[in-house]
Design brief:
Helix content: 25-40%
Strand content: 5-15%
CATH architecture of the domain at 13-73 and 81-182: 3-Layer(aba) Sandwich
Number of strands: 6
Strand order of the largest sheet: 3-2-1-4-5-6
Number of helices: 9
Low-confidence stretches: 222-227, 230-240
Bound molecules: flavin mononucleotide
Largest sheet: 6 strands, parallel
Radius of gyration: 17 Å
Order of helices and strands: EHEHHHEEHHEHEHH
Mean pLDDT: 90
Length: 240
Amino acid sequence: MTAPQPAAGSPPVVLAITGASGTLYAVRLLRALLAADRQVHLTISPSGAAVIQQELGVEISLSQFAAVPLLSHQPAWSTRPPSEPSATELSRLHYHHYQDFMTPIASGSFLTAGMVICPCSGSTLAGIAHASSSNLIQRAAEVHLKERRKLIVVPRETPLSTLALENMHRLSLAGGVVLPAMPGWYHGAQSLDDLVDFIVARILDQLGIDNRLISRWGEALTQRSDDSVGTDQSSLEELT
Ligand SMILES: Cc1cc2nc3c(=O)[nH]c(=O)nc-3n(C[C@H](O)[C@H](O)[C@H](O)COP(=O)(O)O)c2cc1C
């Protein structure tokens, strides 16, 4: 397969949304990546779409994906002003059907900065940990492991079965980063937005993407002056 190479600049990030609870983390992460000037290759499993519908009330067509309703989603409890993605941000988003193995992210020759599966269901985790790719999401994850690139999985389950723990252990031994959706409370969380941002900030940190979504340990909590990601200030202001 001849894979098109990313344009000059920072390599793209692959983001997969699977059928675990916590799909809001993915929306916030996607907005942050696009605001940080990253090309994002997005894919969604059918169960991921079902959980998005259940949790966010956003209908997703996997065959005719429309980004704006998902990216514009704002929970009723959020204290942030509503914001829509800009045309520039939307141009950075590349959607792939979860069964399309002909897409660039199925090949190790397509260079990326890493892949995030957020949230990551127990079944997707199992498929990757046992190298039995049955869809594009698992294939792209295996590609990241074999190419020794960053693979970050964000599982959400409680309690964890021995089998889930074993799969996380296998993935970690293979070079993956297991980053459970377990927000900390030490950054002065005052709202649900802050808890979502805790997880998103830790994912961005893993990808090496500059962000100030949360106060870092050792910083005065009041130092956090904005909600910023990356360097594109106009985009950042839309992320408040
Ligand atoms: C509303 C809803 C919430 C779910 N939450 C979780 C969850 O938090 N963690 C998990 O591992 N699976 C969860 N599941 C089950 C997965 O969606 C199911 O195992 C599915 O087969 C995963 O498929 P996928 O990995 O292809 O997305 C949930 C399912 C539904 C319908």
